[in-house]
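Take a careful look at the sequence and tokenised backbone pasted below. I need to know what the token row says about the fold.
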Amino acid sequence: MLQVAYIRENKLEVIKRLSKRIDNAETTVENVLTLDVSRRSAQTQLDATAADLNALSKEIGVLFKSGQSEKATLLKQKTAELKEQKIALTETLNSTSEELQQLLYQIPNLPHDSVPVGNSEDDNEEVFQFGEIPKLHKAAKPHWELAKTYDIIDFELGNKITGAGFPVYKGKGARLQRALINYFLDKNTAAGYNEVQVPHLVNEASGFGTGQLPDKEGQMYYVDADDLYLIPTGEVPATNIFRDVLLQESELPKQLTTYTPCFRREAGSYGAHVRGLNRLHQFDKVEILRVEHPDNSYKALDAMVDHVKGILEELKLPYRILRLCSGDLGFTSALTYDFEVFSTAQDRWLEISSVSNFETFQANRLKLRFKNSEGKSQLAHTLNGSSLALPRVLAGILENYQTENSIEIPEVLRPYTGFERID
């Protein structure tokens, strides 16, 4: 969430940057500032009324003690009027503050200067590409057919148990999935990320804290009886560890990694681009996140990008990195890099990671601050990245490592799987 003080002090800059993302940036900013003026005016009047009421109460007490009860009674009538004014001003302040808060919740983060202007994923900017596209044999298959051939993932069984988008991993498929999780976690902890296990359901405050609510409410599974949400990503519970926390500057950075299943209601369209593991309602993901000093957050973002690059290069998967344009940028992000693995059998790129800097946007919602060298409280920067999302990484491995008679296992995973191929 943007800070009102920042909008007030940097009006033209906010309008300019926000215009990359929404059409009515100027009107939105003016509405925020108008509500802010009304809120501050109501607060000033309320404070003055409360001060007058307090002074009168003291004066009335003195008059009663000195035997001037008639004069004190007259002042009590004025006190009653001030109390009514105070109630009305309090209602005005509360309603204006709530209206302002709801408006701020609907405004996306300001994009970083490097974010290209664009309307959709077609306008994203490729900034890096690695690896050669493997040449497969003529009878190469997409992963959903390989899964059936080698009996390692059962989509029909998952559909029977739950519904579409909930696959069952079997035998060597389940072991490969577990191997990837352990490999990702080991790589992350070796890089200095502290592993945590977090709840898979969160309350409404946690959803608001990281920006999933109200922006993505329709994509989250909701447990009505308990007023809880199934997590769409481990970012939500892990980042909320720091909600309402005041850190010391010496404690920064904070670096966490977590493995969780993720749940998303988003309805997929039909076609090959959403078949098999390409889009699921339940999937596994290993996450990394950082809480950083604002002066260091973009250096930290580069380090996170390099970390994910290292993992993909060890897996020997061809990949590219995209800088997301303003039209494809997530609601809470100031700058996002997407990683995509090339699926040779599908002849298309598959997104497998997003690494983002949210600057103070989440921290302001979370009330996540640190005490700086001057002893003042200051909002931290939060960053997050997939390291990695498993379904499409697994799809890429199955498709790119297939031979005519087997699926080879990437060498770096063999100590984790205990086998060299699926046949």
